[in-house]
């Protein structure tokens, strides 16, 4: 698509803006941008705010800044009454309303990418009304503050975005770090404490800039002391084993440029605009690339963290956990595990053919389409499973893959939270081991949170129900929203933390933002 270059007059630029903005009838807000025949202070303030869209991770060009600026300047210098006053006013209003909507809801509808994701909620937010209210009070920036996500994480990420953008092109990243020395044992390359390395000075420069190494610490002759501690701090912030050894994974993270980190932050800001954090009294959020679940409660309009625990999510290679936003409605104690047909056919049936004793050891049974249970293993029944005429389920017990509790939030992907007998996997730094469902580290604490206020359900009662060995279902008195989210950049523990894009969702979102249709209010000049 090609648009004509506009160079002759502010009027032609203004006409182009209006054509692209598709502005409608003049509103009350439109009339507030001018002071008599000239653009007033509100118009200049609007231009400043639109230019600052980048600080929110947005693109000022989406709001026609390059066209609005010269048009406003020309209108201020033109003698006599401005014949294009109404058109310019409409253009400013359209640009500001779109900016406020993008701040509040994001530029991408998550339902375009994720099937079970609810649409971002406006919470009664009306961009036109907010703009008019801010103009009436003479505080246009108030509309921007009301539009942006009302969570502290958002402002922390904005500050970090400015910081990492300020480090773009820093000399510390102008050249890559040199190859690591040969490991003392084996063929791999790694830097261990006590070893010399030609990259120590550049390593110290990067770590000092990022805040992991205190300033003015002298560079040692070998990798030791404070430099090892700084690498451990860096590893903790990047989801790595904090052993102080620089191997391939740590070196890869050390090579990521500030520009790339700014990109991660910008994408997280976009996702925060989708997040309906304040819409329920309680909420459970799982951040997939961080492998962490957090339970939040809203008290007096403020968000309070109540629980935080490790989780195990779907394998990145082939059984990824989907991103969804649905309500948890009930809990199953001592649940049966109904094996998905894909797992039964690909894994369980072949193993049962090789090792028939596995059937009784694991407590499996067959279930007919009518619900009849068959407990005997036979070749015919395994063939029936492969044909879809029978299914396999695992009885409650100590070997049950779901553990002794299951948290259910109905969704088309059949994803749920549950306990697991394989608790040792929670000690791993990277925890993508499941077939898609999410295993939780402390199920009693989570159950106490979602069942809070339900008579008779304290922690002792929950633990007792989990140990009964008899399957039972309890409906929650109040549905609790569950958000399976994806953020590779977070501010926590006073520092920025970054996580690997294990499912490639950052790349998908970046592509969706790049490929989205150019909106009417985005002039394109050639």
How much strand content do the residues show?
A: 15-25%
Alpha-carbon distance between the two ends: 10 Å
CATH superfamily of the largest domain: L,D-transpeptidase catalytic domain-like
Q: What is the number of helical segments per DSSP (H or I, 4+ residues)?
A: 17
If you compute it from the alpha carbons, what radius of gyration comes out, rounded to the nearest whole angstrom? 28 Å
Helical content (DSSP H or I, runs of 4+): 25-40%
Instruction: Examine the coordinates and then state which fold CATH places here, giving the name of the CATH topology of the largest domain.
Output: L,D-transpeptidase catalytic domain-like
CATH architecture of the largest domain: Beta Barrel
Main sheet record: 8 strands, mixed, barrel
Strand order of the largest sheet: 3-4-5-14-12-11-6-15
């Amino acid at each position: 698509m090609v648009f004509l270059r506009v160079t002759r007059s502010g009027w032609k630029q203004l006409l182009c803006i209006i054509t692209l903005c598709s502005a409608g009838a003049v509103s009350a807000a439109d009339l507030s941008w001018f002071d008599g025949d000239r653009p007033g202070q509100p118009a200049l303030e609007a231009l400043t705010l639109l230019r600052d869209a980048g600080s929110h991770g947005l693109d000022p060009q989406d709001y026609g800044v390059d066209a609005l600026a010269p048009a406003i300047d020309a209108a201020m210098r033109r003698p006599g009454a401005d014949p294009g006053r109404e058109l310019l006013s409409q253009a400013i209003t359209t640009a500001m309303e779109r900016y406020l909507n993008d701040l509040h809801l994001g530029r991408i509808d998550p339902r375009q990418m994720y099937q079970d994701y609810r649409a971002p909620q406006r919470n009664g937010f009306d961009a036109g009304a907010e703009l008019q209210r801010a103009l009436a009070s003479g505080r246009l920036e108030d509309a921007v503050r009301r539009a942006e996500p009302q969570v502290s994480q958002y402002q922390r990420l904005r500050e970090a975005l400015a910081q990492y953008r300020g480090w773009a092109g820093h000399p510390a990243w102008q050249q890559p770090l040199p190859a690591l020395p040969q490991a003392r044992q084996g063929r791999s390359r790694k830097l261990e404490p006590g070893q010399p390395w030609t990259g120590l000075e550049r390593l110290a420069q990067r770590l000092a800039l990022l805040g992991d190494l205190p300033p003015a610490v002298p560079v040692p002759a070998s990798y030791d002391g404070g430099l090892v501690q700084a690498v451990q701090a860096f590893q903790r912030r990047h989801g790595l084993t904090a052993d102080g050894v620089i191997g391939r994974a740590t070196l890869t993270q050390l090579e990521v440029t500030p520009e790339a980190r700014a990109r991660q932050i910008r994408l997280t800001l976009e996702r925060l605009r989708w997040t309906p954090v304040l819409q329920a009294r309680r909420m459970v959020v799982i951040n997939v690339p961080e492998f962490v679940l957090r339970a939040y409660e809203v008290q007096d309009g403020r968000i309070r963290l109540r629980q935080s625990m490790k989780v195990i999510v779907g394998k990145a290679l082939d059984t990824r956990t989907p991103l969804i936003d649905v309500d948890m409605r009930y809990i199953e104690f001592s649940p049966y595990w109904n094996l998905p047909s894909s797992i039964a056919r690909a894994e369980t049936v072949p193993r049962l053919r090789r090792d028939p004793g596995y059937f009784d050891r694991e407590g499996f049974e067959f279930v007919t389409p009518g619900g009849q249970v068959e407990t005997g293993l036979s070749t015919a029944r395994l063939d029936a499973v492969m044909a879809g005429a029978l299914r396999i389920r695992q009885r409650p017990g100590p070997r049950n893959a779901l553990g002794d509790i299951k948290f259910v939030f109905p969704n088309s992907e059949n994803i749920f939270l549950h306990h697991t007998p394989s608790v040792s996997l929670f000690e791993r730094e990277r925890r993508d081991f499941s077939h898609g469902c999410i295993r939780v580290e402390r199920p009693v604490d989570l159950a106490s949170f979602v069942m809070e206020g339900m008579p008779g359900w304290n922690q002792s009662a929950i633990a007792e129900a989990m140990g009964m060995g008899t399957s039972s279902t309890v409906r929650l008195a109040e549905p609790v929203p569950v958000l399976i989210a994806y953020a590779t950049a977070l501010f926590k523990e006073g520092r920025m933390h970054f996580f690997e894009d294990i499912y490639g969702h950052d790349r998908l979102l970046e592509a969706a933002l790049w490929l989205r249709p150019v909106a009417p209010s985005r002039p394109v000049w050639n």
